[in-house]
Amino acid sequence: QGPPALIENLALVRVPIVQVAYNESGRLLAVGTVDGHVFFFDMRNRKFRVLGYLEMMGAVTAIAWNGEHLLVSLNSGDVYRFSAPPVDGTPSKTLEFEPDMIKKQAIKVQRTLSALVS
């Protein structure tokens, strides 16, 4: 079978990517960065089509899909749940999601999570 092959090389961010998670269908990929960005990609046809990003209030420490929702844990201990972004349509010029495009919900936790399990 051989070693893994490079599919695509994207220069999207200049900071380390710390978390990567595919949704159950393999259509959506979420990527979390050390500076608090979460990028969403449409992975249909094995292409990295950028759908947009969210800017969080802290470094991303863990991400995991739970059905059609993405759970994001931050270094502050806060955990958020986001609805999956729409895969059809044209992203904005800045790629930042408008506040009403993705539903955001804060989740109360007793202690910091080091990993999220769906």
Write the layout of secondary structure elements.
Blueprint (H helix, E strand, L loop, with lengths): L16 E6 L5 E6 L3 E6 L6 E7 L4 E7 L2 E6 L4 E5 L20 E4 L11
Antiparallel strand pairs: 1-2, 2-3, 3-4, 5-6, 6-7, 7-8
Describe this structure in words.
The protein contains no helices and eight strands. The radius of gyration is 14 Å and the shape is globular. The model has no long low-confidence stretch (mean pLDDT about 80). A four-stranded antiparallel beta sheet has the order 1-2-3-4, with no helix packed on it. Helices cover about 0% and strands about 40% of the residues. It is an all-beta fold and about 120 residues long.
The topology string of helices and strands comes to EEEEEEEE
Oligomer: single chain
What form results from the Cα inertia axes?
A: globular
Which regions are unreliable across 5 or more consecutive residues at pLDDT < 50?
A: none
Proportion of residues in helical segments: under 10%
**Computed structural class:** mainly beta
In spatial order, strands of the major sheet run: 1-2-3-4
Structure annotation, total helices: 0
Radius of gyration: 14 Å
Strand segment count: 8
How much strand content do the residues show?
35-45%
**Rounded mean pLDDT score:** 78
List its traits.
single chain; four-stranded antiparallel beta sheet; mainly beta; globular; 118 residues; 0% helix
